[in-house]
Write a structure and sequence with these properties.
The protein is of the alpha+beta class. It folds into 2 domains: 6-20 and 35-137, PurM-like, N-terminal domain (60s Ribosomal Protein L30, Chain: A); 152-301, PurM-like C-terminal domain (Phosphoribosyl-aminoimidazole Synthetase, Chain A, domain 2), CATH 3.90.650.10. 34% of the residues lie in helices and 24% in strands. It has helices at residues 6-14, 59-77, 95-111, 161-169, 177-188, 194-199, 214-225, 240-243, 247-256, 272-281; strands at residues 38-48, 80-90, 115-123, 127-137, 152-156, 206-209, 228-232, 263-267, 286-293, 298-301, 307-308. The strands form 2 sheets. Strands 6-8-5-9-7-10-11 form a 7-stranded mixed sheet, with helices on both faces. Helix 3 links the parallel strand 2 (80-90) and strand 3. Bound molecules: adenosine-5'-diphosphate (ADP) and magnesium ion. The site of adenosine-5'-diphosphate has 13 residues, from helix 1, strand 2 and strand 3.
Length: 319
């Protein structure tokens, strides 16, 4: 059999008929038509082998995760996803990789009714870069800059499982098989909180998705809002699996974890009922875990109000 060329590869695995887009894969540009009065929300995230994923990840999960981490950014803005483009560098045109990769990618795309409208394909080290396009009513995006002293700090879902899985891969923690599968799934197959992001428009005063760990990502909100914060360590939502680990490891996973893809957001205490309604409409648990403060400091406290060393978030060029 002749080796598969670039255009055959695109046609076989990534060219599906456009539905919503005015022009999809196959021409020089894709054409998108946002609805009148809507702003485009655009975000781009790259996954590099050895940096963002391990070579052991199943291709189906890599396809899922590459899109999920991008959708998570749209969720953090409160945008509705429309379409995405895929820039793919891969060592070989290998069907055993491409078929499950595309299956994982399109399963998540179909779940949210969005389509792949273009991209670029090249031979090289395995590297997956997706750009997503979403829309939202002009002026209604959830930004990092709206937190004010006195607002509650909330997070969705549970934190720390993805980091725990990484620590097991690194040989720094051990788990029985089924518990490992659970946290490995959190790391490899995150759920973007799109419905929650949409439901929080007009309720949350700021939002960010947790990709680099709570301390680092909350730090972005603090800087851009010009505020400080107090986080109650014991209030942070965690799985039963994470609870089996030492207090020190739990703290690292919860505060400096990364790869959680949950939303962290702020809202005035007067909107607690509205936050809980948004969460139940989106079928996601949310937990109040801190308070926005005046100043610029982050204080992490335990149940007795004692200060806890917070550590730092993930930075590709610092660690
Ligand atoms: P050009 O040379 O005009 O930049 P290409 O030859 O790279 O275009 O790609 C041909 C068509 O296939 C374009 O419409 C492009 O958007 C699309 N395409 C290329 N790679 C991918 C991919 N990985 N997924 C989806 N569409 C792709
Ligand atoms: Mg062209």
């Amino acid at each position: 059999m002749a080796p598969m060329g670039e255009f055959e590869l695109i046609d076989r695995f990534f060219n599906r008929p456009a539905r919503r887009a005015a022009m999809g894969v196959g021409d020089d540009c894709a054409l998108l038509q946002p609805q009148p009065g809507m702003q485009l929300a655009v975000s781009c995230d790259m996954l590099v082998e050895g940096r963002h994923f391990l070579s052991t990840v199943a291709p189906e999960r890599l396809g899922h995760k590459a899109l999920a981490v991008n959708l998570s950014d749209l969720a953090a803005c409160g945008a509705e996803p429309l379409a995405f483009v895929l820039a793919l560098s891969l060592p070989r045109a290998d069907e055993a990789f491409l078929a499950p990769f595309a299956a994982g990618l399109f399963a998540l795309a179909d779940e949210h009714g969005i389509e792949l409208v273009g991209g670029d394909t090249t031979a090289g080290p395995l590297n997956v870069c997706i750009t997503v396009f979403g829309q939202l009513p002009a002026g209604q995006a959830l930004l990092r800059s709206g937190a004010r002293p006195g607002h509650d700090i909330w997070v969705s879902g549970r934190l720390g499982d993805a980091r725990l899985a990484l620590e097991v891969f690194r040989g720094h923690a051990t788990l029985p098989g089924s518990a490992f599968e659970e946290v490995r799934r959190a790391m490899e197959r995150p759920t973007p909180r799109l419905a929650l992001g949409l439901a929080l428009r007009g309720v949350a005063t700021s939002a960010i998705d947790l990709s680099d760990g709570l301390v680092g990502d909350l730090g972005h909100v603090m800087r851009q809002s010009g505020v400080g914060a107090t986080i109650e360590l014991d209030a942070l939502p965690r799985s039963a699996v994470l609870e089996t680990q030492s207090q020190a490891l739990q703290r690292v996973c919860l505060l400096a974890g990364g790869d959680d893809y949950e939303l962290l957001f702020t809202a005035p205490p007067s909107r607690r009922d509205a936050v809980l309604s948004a969460a139940s409409a989106a079928r996601v648990a949310v937990t109040r875990c801190g308070t926005v403060e005046a100043g610029d400091e982050l204080r992490v406290v335990d149940a007795d109000g004692r200060l806890v060393e917070p550590g730092h978030g993930f930075d590709h060029f610092a660690s």
